[in-house]
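Justification of resources, computational component.

The compute hours requested in this renewal are based largely on the per-chain cost of generating structure records like the one below. Each record pairs the submitted sequence with a full structure-token output. That output is archived, and it is also reused by downstream analysis tasks.
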Amino acid sequence: MSIPLSNLTLTIPENIYIKDPQSSKLGRRILEYSIQIIRQEGLEKFTFKKLADEISSNESSVYRYFENKHMLMLYLISWYWGWLEYKLVFRINNIECSKKVLERAITAITETPRKDETFGFINEEELHHIIVQEYSKAFHTIDVDEENKNGYFTIYRRLVQRLNEIIQAYNPDYCYPLTLANTILQGALKQNFLHQHFKQLSDFKETDEEPITQFFQHLTFKSLS
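The structure output for this chain reads:
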């Protein structure tokens, strides 16, 4: 069943931003062009000054939305997890077979992203690339415990929990559903990174169709059998 996403908004935890960029044209441009710049130059070289120049605004206008680039990156990562959650939910809508639900959930999470015109100001293909390259930098910080306590990773935790429940529905006796759910979510990003930069450490070939999805389907159902 096809369900339109046109009336849906991805809600990000309020304490990540000062003003929600989805609420204004300037804010949406900040998201759109920050993705482009980070994609081209990396997070380390990205600055609000470069972003302001790109959108023909001033640096202070960017600071009205985000305290710093770390918070902007947390916003983009949260948006990505939220988008994956919507994909997952709609892929499994009205499906009763627990195996088919799990297959579709894994595919939604691990497949190569395509641009979703529902959210025109976000290029999901570009965002996926920078998440693969940069997402661990948002987790591996000295403040991660405090940020987790403050709810910065709420959407990620919710997505893991949703996948955990799908795994348990397929095999209630499996002892490590949360671990497996995390392995699928973060492992898909890690395997993308290795395939892009360390091909000698990857079994995947350029001619393979959705090899990462195939791998995690195989890994998951072998683990649950």
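Residues 69-91 form the longest helix (23 residues). The radius of gyration is 18 Å.
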